[in-house]
Amino acid sequence: MAVHPVLETVTARIIQRSRPSRGAYLAHLEAARVNGPQRGALSCTNLAHGFAAFPANDKLVLKEVKKPSVAIISSYNDMLSAHQPFETFPAIIKDAVRKVGAVAQFAGATPAMCDGVTQGQPGMELSLFSRDAIAQSTAIALSHNMFDSVLYLGVCDKIVPGLLIGALHFGHLPAVFVPAGPMTTGLSNKDKAAIRQRYAQGKATRDELLEGEAKSYHGAGTCTFYGTANSNQMLMEVMGLHLPGAAFISPGTELRDALTAAAAQRAALITAQGNEYIPVGHVVDEKSIVNAVVGLLATGGSTNHTLHLVAIAKAAGIVIDWNDFDELSKVVPLLTRIYPNGEADVNHFHAAGGTGFVIRELLDAGLLHDDVNTILGKGLRKHCAEPFLADGESPHGVTWRDAPLESGDEKVLRKHTNPFSADGGMVLVQGNLGRAVMKVSAVKEEHRTVQAPALVFNSQEEFMDTYKAGKLDRDFVAVLRFQGPRANGMPELHALTPALANLQDAGRKVALVTDGRMSGASGKVPAAIHVSPEVLAGGALGLVRDGDIIRVDGFTGTLEALVPSDVWHARALATADLTPNGVGMGRELFAMYRNSISAAESGATTFPLPSPIPTTVGLHAQDPVGNTVPGSDEDYSTKKD
């Protein structure tokens, strides 16, 4: 199947744009490789420390420095449902790799916070920053240089992107991502949303709300709606970093454990010591990043990935922007309806055909690159499959069959020839207010254009107080500013969704414009989010005043304040006291992130693009991609101890 011309054009542009930084990245990757097991580069003292506490047989394997050592990095904790299943995975992994002559070591853990717990709370202001902290934790775990490949155990919002960013900074090591799977289906997402809206209206008690939430989030595993966590799992499949069909197998099942064992053995077999060396830095390339964007769009995935995919790409020396998302969205059909873009959950999606079905349909439509590396080798079509328990002949208890040719439920999953929508439902909107992302896949066409007076808020608490006071029964565009990464860490603004939905249901024309995030929970109300630049970077949201007419148009890609030019340019940027955002709940520890983080469209990252290491480093020197290089004017090659 020929590749779609838009896919080809966007990919070629990304390759050209990324040439300096991608070249530097690949050079770093090659420089990090060693002959034989990685731990062979360590001194005897180093190595002895690295296996001192290990069982005798495993210690012998590590001591001989002949066979691979597989690192385990996990986001396990037993408070959060998505991560609790990982408690039992290390034992399964260690046993599985021994069977193929390797050793697995638990290299380290990463933090894992839940936006579902912290939403609307001060802790949410650490959420986005936790992604880069997870990447740093990953680097610390791997810094011992004992390992030949890595198993990454993670699921949710910032965890998988953080793990992958960390993995790419050790791009010479193979990487296999191991999910925990979704919890079984509980209270339907539709009923859950209805209770939330009734509570926002004062028509349901707190006890009724809590009972509904507890019936929805009721057991071990990932939340079942298609938010950022489950978008992560879809993207790991489309990028070839999971075993086929691994994403949506529930925890605590025989198949889940068999897939974990199979993933462990695969990680042991693709090290540099074998015949199938597949480093993660060669799996994640320009084509696989484009594939990830397409997979996100075709499934109506989380808007958070307009940040995270940019950051993941950056870690691999690849530069993408929102124009790339926008152009691809115009030609990528929407193949799924999963809540909040429909009523089904991910268990229903998996039963209807799942990820293998989606990958095959997109390949058949010419909308994915097949000629990419995956953990199974060359070719993405190997991932058009779903797993089943084997009959005992398979050494790891799992086998694969081709994904079904027909959808099991066309209300949930469709072929590319009969999509739910001809486009991916993610739009770049721009104008004199800046550039923003708008997810319209769940927004009815009659709500995609709003032109109404602005009501300006500096916090979501201010908005909710006004709503509860009954002062928002009108047409308006809520302009919520000082929610960007530099201001307060760019928290998700889930608390606004029920209130705005109630107003829209009552017949009001409402929209949200913000430099904050809405995540995979972006729903039926039009929302222009991630507005860049944010106010603290000179963004025009700081020029908006109550009563200004704002136009948000998901059809034309317009984000405009309809204010006379002379009036607009005579205004000064608004200011706000952001001191409270920097203190309490540990926020003071993250001042360095707020002070150094990049813009949302640049991935909201705290790390630079890869660049060649210059031989002469000066205070004002620049590397080939234009980053100022700190240091002295001395040539380091002439420095003496």
TrEMBL record:
GO cellular component, one term: cytosol
Gene Ontology MF terms: 4 iron, 4 sulfur cluster binding; metal ion binding; phosphogluconate dehydratase activity
Location of the Dihydroxy-acid/6-phosphogluconate dehydratase N-terminal domain: 67-381
Chain ranges of the Dihydroxy-acid/6-phosphogluconate dehydratase C-terminal domain: 411-604
Gene3D superfamilies according to UniProt: IlvD/EDD C-terminal domain-like
Binding site for [4Fe-4S] cluster: C156, C223
EC number: 4.2.1.12
Keywords: 4Fe-4S, Carbohydrate metabolism, Gluconate utilization, Iron, Iron-sulfur, Lyase, Metal-binding
Pathway membership, UniProt: Carbohydrate metabolism; Entner-Doudoroff pathway
Keyword Ubl conjugation: no
One Pfam family in the UniProt entry: ILV_EDD_C
Catalysed reaction, written as an equation: 6-phospho-D-gluconate = 2-dehydro-3-deoxy-6-phospho-D-gluconate + H2O
Presence of the UniProt keyword Manganese in the record: no
Location of the region described as Disordered in the Swiss-Prot/TrEMBL record: 615-641
Residue ranges that the Swiss-Prot or TrEMBL entry lists as coiled coil: none
Cofactor needs: [4Fe-4S] cluster
Cofactor comment: Binds 1 [4Fe-4S] cluster.
Any one of the GO BP annotations: Entner-Doudoroff pathway through 6-phosphogluconate
Family, per entry: Belongs to the IlvD/Edd family.
Biological function: Catalyzes the dehydration of 6-phospho-D-gluconate to 2-dehydro-3-deoxy-6-phospho-D-gluconate.
Name under which the protein is recorded: Phosphogluconate dehydratase
Organism listed in the record: Pseudoduganella namucuonensis
Taxon lineage: Bacteria, Pseudomonadati, Pseudomonadota, Betaproteobacteria, Burkholderiales
Gene that this polypeptide is encoded by: edd
